[in-house]
């Protein structure tokens, strides 16, 4: 998933928008207390995310440099460069600061986006020798001519080994990125809750307007499986818009009833699985989506969470369909499907359907099942059932009339077939979808 650009409108807020600054500071304080090493977090420009009064761990040497004219800007520029290098390599980056101390930068990265850097160190890795003092003077002569206090502060610096540097750098890298990832997930969840609420309230207004227009006539709820298939056969954006509207509509129909909400969302996911099968998606893909989402839907007691879980599952279906969209459908399959949709009311047999594509019945059956994940005759039954479901929305149609309209002379046999596909009888289906 991509980082949304609106979180990063201000460099000072890149990290603070995602996690509690106080919590981060407490973690770094504990790190400093345990190791004796300074630790700070800066944004992409090298500026500390903490209030200045909260920075208490800076060593005396760095406080002197920081307070010299130009010292602050030089430090921040160094942290910015080190952060970029760390992000480029994807691991802690050890460097020597412009004033001569050893520091390391651990990148804070979210989905390949560098949002900040942990700066740690302000130490030496060796005992100062004569060359060190010469070099230190040269490196800082642009800032000051008075080195007495600066040289004195060197005596307070810690001397650490290379192993200590690497271990502490990696520790901070892991901890901070774990916290940031959790913060990002919470942020995304909040955004999704807000988006779902917006869609829901918009659907409420749409429904109110529609009911008023229909003069409070009885309305019906139905997940149109055939329409979902049509939408998925279009581009992904249109399918997503359609399904988001459908989710909001189903939530409206649940009227904040937890049990009804669960049932409706489960029904949608089951139908999506059938659509996925028709479109040739591998069974293990859509089974994995539903096996993950449906148990979670029944474990939560929040309408908002159910809505979000279903939305995530729908997105997973969309991604799976996009991955398979590049696989062109066999034109013979298209010919057979067109024949079925134009003649579903008739007494169709495999031979006639295969003949529409100029294929042998055996070969036609094999390629149809391979690409659609369903047998030819089961697809015929499915088309008939989808047509019947639409007709059942009209209470004026008798069951016998509907059976005959979709190709069944016997209402009893039609009822058996319908129950096989939907798990309920036509009468029960009509009653369930009537408000």
TrEMBL record:
HTH araC/xylS-type domain residues are: 334-432
Reading the lineage from the top rank, the first entry is: Bacteria
UniProt keywords, alphabetically: DNA-binding, Transcription, Transcription regulation
Which positions carry the signal peptide feature in this UniProt record?
Answer: none
For whether the record's keyword set contains Phosphoprotein, the answer is: no
Supply one GO molecular-function term: sequence-specific DNA binding
Protein name (Swiss-Prot/TrEMBL):
Helix-turn-helix domain-containing protein
- The organism is Acetobacterium paludosum
